[in-house]
TrEMBL record:
One of its GO terms (biological process) is carbohydrate metabolic process. Gene3D superfamilies: Glycosidases (3.20.20.80), Golgi alpha-mannosidase II (2.60.40.1180), Immunoglobulins (2.60.40.10). This is Alpha-amylase. It comes from the Bacteria. The lineage of its organism: Bacteria, Pseudomonadati, Pseudomonadota, Gammaproteobacteria, Alteromonadales. It holds the Pfam family Alpha-amylase. InterPro entries: Cyc-maltodext_N (IPR015171), Cyclo-malto-dextrinase_C (IPR019492), GH (IPR017853), GH13_cat_dom (IPR006047), Glyco_hydro_b (IPR013780), Ig-like_fold (IPR013783), Ig_E-set (IPR014756).
Length: 649
């Protein structure tokens, strides 16, 4: 995510509370209005037995709660200590749950001269196999959804009395009504398309006055925005998707929050937020930051940088509506770690995409990543580091031995450098150092990565202009780009709507239009992808191409884990081969030919016989037709040809 336009003037509404009365027991319930005299807020909302993260820290919020004496009635759960801050309205309780069985236990808060308060807290039983869950991998195709813009399955939740911003589909930057139910209703379409993972932009509450649809200004870490659905709806989405062979990847933000987060009216500590101005907690959306981030990410790796420049990058705010969190604060760091684990466990997730990865404290990022991966050893996390420099990307990947001693624990990153190179290679005229040769030579940069195959390569996302538009509304080039993403030695990700050539402006950014509504996601849409209604010839062609290639890829294990070889482009033609073995000693299984020439080309095959061996024919992945592999191969003008070579050849 990069800098977003935002201006807000609405007041904060706090939610997700536990209503308490003297000596009355309560379990976690629906969100209730904040009332310091009668309410406590406890987070996480619950925990689970048999967790690796068995040392649980509860954040308790309530009027003068720091003065309370805490006791517990539980089987095998012990209070190891309590921590207070300069704010008397917060209390942090350290619990040891190791070895405890699933149960509901009682926490009692005894304040001198005040009524005793008792709270029921759930330690739930984990889902079977939870710790062994598999994260997304090279076998998957990730489909990115902006949920407000994909499908409106429940018009009844478009507006909510607790939420400031109301739906206005005529406003490109407003809320349009897409929700979790809309995604659930679309699972058959997504499964048929060949998608195996859904990356969904943040669904947690964003109670901001404007631009709340994008989800990157969280105002409640433990509540799904009610305009999207409920916490239970989110879990049901993951479970129903799993039935169709689809996983769910959460979009997480540990760098910043929304200015209407309930913390901002009563910060837990004075150092909870980086560089606020004074007064900060003014109850409005226009709290000012002392400084904004410089976005100069190389200061974290530059051996010649000064501390001041590094701090201006990490500690500055994105925009006025996004307070920057101080992950060096140990209570906050633990809160963020537990929150991420909570959503993985509750939401039945198969991955996390971490927004603005390098902007958070880099020591914390190691702790955060290690904690999640210790809980789920086969999980996966991908970080966003928006740069075209492979060396900068490589710094953050697990296994990279950086000269400054920093050792990341992050398995994957978004491959912005290769994405940007792909666009250049297809957009410009062929030349000695332009065009397809860029792609060929750029792959030599893979030597700087600990594992380039674990990077996520994409054709676009919610922050980039649409692929089809960037390639001049050229169908052939768009298919070439998609084929490259899907057959590379990376984890592929596509953006919703690319399969039907959704468009955007190409000059500067226009997020509201880039993230336009998916046709057919609203009941009265004249065009519907789901019903195959109203698509143009080119849109139908692109949809068919995408479906064919995704479903072919799903069963092509050699694309997931095999080797890649390629040949220097000549005369506007670039050939890549995919093999089952990393060294391609088994010969090619897939030949991908990229042709930028407008006219048909006759391609001599002698140059490629080292990997084609004696193969005399192949099957066109898209058309299904048999193609002879004699002395030459005829390419029908600009486009991509994908030839599957059977093992018996």
């Amino acid at each position: 995510m990069r800098r977003l336009h935002s201006k807000f003037t609405s007041t904060l509404i706090a939610t997700s509370l536990i209503l308490l009365t003297p000596v009355t027991h309560h379990t976690l319930a629906a969100p209730l209005p904040l009332n310091h005299d009668t309410a406590l807020r406890i987070e996480p909302l619950n925990w689970w037995a048999d967790m690796h993260h068995s040392q649980l820290q509860l954040m308790v919020y309530g009027k003068n709660i720091a003065k309370a004496k805490v006791s517990i009635t539980a089987d095998g759960v012990a209070v190891k200590g309590v921590e207070t801050t300069e704010n008397p309205n917060y209390l942090f309780i350290n619990l040891d749950t190791q070895g405890a069985k699933a149960q509901t236990f009682q926490l009692t808060f005894d304040q001198a001269g005040e009524a005793q308060i008792s709270v029921a807290y759930d330690l739930l039983k984990r889902d079977k196999g939870s710790a062994e869950r598999l994260g997304f991998s090279n076998k998957d195709v990730i489909y990115l959804i902006t949920p407000d813009r994909f499908a409106n399955g429940d018009p009844g939740n478009d507006n909510h009395p607790d939420m400031i911003e109301r739906a206005d589909r005529s406003n490109p930057g407003g809320r349009h009504g897409g929700d979790i139910q809309g995604i659930i209703n679309s699972l058959d379409y997504l499964a048929d398309l060949g998608v195996t993972q859904l990356w969904i932009n943040p669904l947690t509450e964003n109670n901001q006055g404007e631009y709340s649809y994008h989800g990157y200004s969280v105002t409640d870490h433990y509540r799904i925005d009610p305009r999207f659905g409920s916490n239970q709806d989110y879990r049901q989405l993951a479970l129903k998707a799993q039935e169709k062979g689809i996983g769910v990847i959460a979009d997480v933000v540990v760098n910043h929050i929304g200015s209407n987060h309930w913390w901002m009216q009563d910060l837990p500590t004075n150092d909870w937020v980086n560089r606020p101005s004074s007064p900060l907690a003014n109850g409005k959306d226009n709290a000012k930051a002392l400084t904004f981030t410089s976005h100069r990410r190389t200061t974290l790796q530059d051996p010649y940088s000064v501390d001041k420049d590094t701090q201006e990058f990490t500690d500055g705010w994105f925009v006025e509506s996004m307070p920057d969190l101080n992950q060096r604060q140990p209570l906050l760091a633990n809160y963020l770690i537990q929150n991420s684990i909570w959503w993985v466990e509750h939401g039945h997730l198969s991955g996390i995409r971490e927004d603005t990865y390098s902007y958070a404290d880099k020591a914390f990022l190691v702790d955060w990543t290690q904690a999640i991966m210790a809980e789920y050893p086969h999980f996966n996390i991908v970080g966003e580091e928006w740069t075209g420099n492979p060396i900068t990307i490589s710094y953050w990947q697990k296994g990279k031995n950086n000269k400054d001693g920093y050792r990341s624990a992050l398995p994957s990153l978004m491959d912005f450098p290769l994405y940007e190179t792909l666009l250049k290679a297809l957009s410009e005229e062929e030349g000695w150092s332009e065009g397809l040769i860029r792609l060929y030579e750029f792959l030599a940069n893979d030597v700087v990565y600990a594992d380039p195959t674990q990077l996520v390569l994409f054709e676009g996302n919610h922050d980039t202009n649409r692929l089809y538009s960037l390639l001049g509304d050229n169908l052939a080039l768009t298919k070439m780009a998609l084929a490259y993403v899907l057959t590379s030695n990376r984890i592929p990700q596509i953006f919703y709507g690319s399969e039907i050539l959704m468009q955007s402006p190409t000059r500067d950014r226009n997020d509201g239009i880039t993230r336009s509504d998916f046709p057919g996601g609203w009941q009265d849409d004249a065009i519907s992808v789901f019903d195959n209604k109203g698509l143009s010839e080119d849109q139908a062609s692109m949809l068919s191409f995408t479906r064919s290639l995704l479903n072919y890829r799903k069963q092509a294990g050699f694309i997931h884990n095999g080797g890649l070889r390629h040949y220097v482009p000549q005369d506007g033609v670039y050939v890549q081969m995919r093999c089952a073995k990393q060294d391609c000693s088994d010969k090619a299984r897939l030949m991908v030919v990229y042709n930028k020439n407008d006219k048909p080309v006759t391609l001599p095959l002698a140059r490629y016989r080292d990997l084609l061996a004696s193969a005399g024919s192949a099957r066109d992945v898209i058309s299904g037709e048999t193609v002879a592999l004699g002395k030459t191969l005829t390419l029908n003008g600009q486009g991509v040809t994908l030839l599957a070579i059977e093992e018996t050849n």
